[in-house]
Amino acid sequence: MVWCKRSSYYPGKRILIIGGSSGLGLSLAKDAKSRGCKVTITARSLSSMEALQKEYALLTVDITDEKSVASLPTDFDMIFCCAGYALPSLAKDIEILQVERQLNCNFLGPVRVYLHFLQSASLKHRKHLVLIASTLALHSFGGYGMYAPSKAALSSFYEAVECESSMQGLDLSIYYVSTIQSPGFIEEQKHKPLFTKKIEGSSMGTDSLPDNRAKHLLDSLPSTRIVYSDFITRLFSKSAHICSLADIFAVIIAPVFWLGFKIFSYYMTHKYYPKRAKNNGLKKKE
Question: How far is it, in rounded angstroms, from Cα 146 to Cα 40?
Fold first, then answer.
């Protein structure tokens, strides 16, 4: 990824926002357009975007359907994968069907999008895919037994493929975002246990408004791959379970170990990556 000044990073970029009809996606569309981007938004149906047709190019896609994702055009510089949802519940009310549905939308959906755009990326024509995770992808708490695993899987997927993807011309970023006061959040509240509402109540400030969450992401992307929506989320990312003296020692040395491990893993990936795969990154065309 090439780091740029904010003022020169966005103008003229062709941006696709998957799940752009409301919430964070719509706020990203508005903000990106104000920064000089050419914005296309998607939803599962055109009817949910009728009021937006004068402002943006529109596409329909269902990220839970592989054929639907495969039909997406690929002539974009940046892709934001915002589609997703949460269905909170008590642990005793967890249903396998609902777990599967959230995994299909929140994890497998972005993976489908990733694979689709990886095929069209190249070192000559790079693309940038932004995955939307959650604070709960880092650590979770009661009420999110069906949702948090889907975002944790997305976070793990990002870590596993980020280096290789860059070598193929697809730059990846991930946004660990806390509460967003969106239509989806209002729907969540209908199912959310009271204790879950109390735990996350402190995250309901003005920062949680979709416009503010979107601005923070767009402001951050020119200079970093991993974006945290707020300081609490950043704390979540650096936190660990401490149950013994050995854990305390591990917490102290973990930052140094992790830095060394990341450097080592990047070096080994670049050194031993199949030469044919590297050459494919140069040969692929839009």
Answer: 31
**CB contact at 8 A, 133 and 183:** no
According to DSSP, residue 107 is labeled I
56 domain-assigned: yes
Domain containing 191 — which CATH number? 3.40.50.720
In a domain, residue 251? The reply is no
CA 90 to chain centre: 26
Per the DSSP assignment, residues forming a β-bridge with 172 are 129
Residue pointed to by tokens 């005793």 = 92
End-to-end, the C-alpha distance of the chain in Å comes to 19
Per-residue pLDDT 10s for the chain (286 aa) are 445 666 789 999 999 999 999 999 999 999 999 999 999 999 999 999 999 999 999 999 999 999 999 999 999 999 999 999 999 999 999 999 999 999 999 999 999 999 999 999 999 999 999 999 999 999 999 999 999 999 999 999 999 999 999 999 999 999 999 999 999 999 999 999 999 999 887 667 889 999 999 999 999 999 999 999 999 999 999 988 888 889 898 989 988 998 999 999 989 998 988 876 655 655 554 4
Q: Is residue 200 part of a domain?
A: yes
Q: Answer yes or no: is 268 within a domain.
A: no
Count of domains forming the chain: 1
Enclosing domain of residue 221: 6-239
Tokens of 179: 């509460």
Q: How far apart are CA 264 and CA 139, in angstroms?
A: 26
| pTM of the predicted model as reported, rounded to 2 decimal places | 0.91
